[in-house]
Design a protein that fits this description.
With 335 residues, the chain is an all-alpha fold. It is built from 16 helices and no strands.
């Protein structure tokens, strides 16, 4: 059967069936379906995440997400990957809530988005696994037995629910063509092209700029990250820790998730590297938290306005080029 050879988890198809039953199966109506996961991502950022990282960082993250190239690229597509971006983002948001507040409702939210991720996209499932591993590491350092217990219980329940599709996934891995899920890209190219540069249109010239920005971010956050993990008590550490705490937490979660993704995608061939853009909104949240922590408000505002404006224009141009290329291909086929 096709489902054993190569087929995405069934959640997207199930939701699309309900949507088409209610609103009809006209192509224009179906293409609007992408707005549901986009609205979901913005809701996550502006409500539960806003309470955790502050209104300023949440607004910046919402703006960057809305005008990211991921949304422009998928605006007329009918495919499950944007749903995977939404569910993976939800996992990270509620994982941060679990660490910061450690309340039952947050674990319920994490469990729900983990199950949704497992049944929406394989890479989203890897993101969920990374979120759980991050919580175990953080709670382990803090010797928080209650947090560890809740993570293990939540993860165990989600694992049991995933067993039916896991059986199919194992069969897919056994039957799939050797070359089909193979990713010729190396780890560096996969990270730069599909995570860091994915939110920014290649025609804007900002893709290379964001690669540089990301390197600076990673380097600048290593010190506060270490301070957070080892909980140093120096005055300098206290100032940096308070200012960049959320960035450090997101960086740690991001690093663990990417490490898991690189291993499974590039070496076990569980999916192709191009699906790394499922991580991209989490990268934008990390970027937003860093921007919001800066004291240079005017500079940051000008930078964000320029970033969004140039990227919007480049996205429109990119869509035009994409459509033109497809029309030329169709014209050549007809000729």
């Amino acid at each position: 059967p096709l489902i054993v050879k190569d087929y995405s988890p069934p959640l997207y198809t199930f939701i699309l069936k309900i949507y088409s039953t209610i609103f009809g199966a006209d192509m224009s109506v179906l293409r609007f379906f992408y707005a549901i996961p986009l609205f979901g991502m913005l809701s996550l950022i502006l409500f539960p995440l806003r309470k955790l990282i502050g209104g300023k960082a949440a607004i910046i993250a919402a703006v960057l997400t809305t005008f990211s190239s991921i949304n422009f690229f998928f605006f007329d597509d009918i495919r499950p990957t944007l749903l995977g971006v939404f569910t993976a983002t939800g996992c990270n948001v509620f994982a941060l809530a679990c660490y910061r507040e450690n309340k039952k409702r947050d674990y319920i939210g994490l469990s729900i988005f983990t199950v949704l991720s497992m049944y929406s996209h394989t890479v989203a499932m890897l993101v969920a696994a990374g979120a759980f591993l991050t919580l175990l590491i953080l709670f382990g350092f803090k010797k928080n037995s209650n947090g560890i217990k809740r993570v293990l219980i939540s993860g165990g329940i989600c694992s049991l629910i995933y067993i039916p599709w896991l059986i199919i996934l194992v069969q897919q891995l056994n039957k799939v063509q050797t070359h089909y899920w193979h990713s010729p890209e190396g780890a560096g190219k996969a990270l730069s092209d599909y995570v860091i540069r994915a939110p920014f249109e290649q025609y804007s010239g900002l893709d290379f700029l964001t690669l540089i920005i990301c390197l600076v971010i990673f380097l600048s956050l290593m010190i506060p990250l270490l301070l957070i993990v080892f909980d140093r008590k120096t005055n300098t550490a206290t100032v940096i820790k308070k200012k960049y705490k959320d960035s450090g937490l997101f960086l740690l979660m991001f690093a663990i998730e990417l490490s898991i993704g690189l291993f499974f995608i590039l070496y076990l061939r569980i999916a192709t590297a191009r699906y790394f853009y499922i991580y991209s909104v989490s990268f934008l949240i990390l970027l937003a938290v860093l921007f919001a922590a800066s004291d240079k408000k005017n500079i940051i505002s000008i930078l964000l306005l320029t970033l969004v404006s140039v990227n919007y224009i480049a996205n429109v141009r990119g869509i035009y080029i994409y459509v033109k290329l497809n029309e030329d291909k169709i014209g050549n086929l007809i000729a």
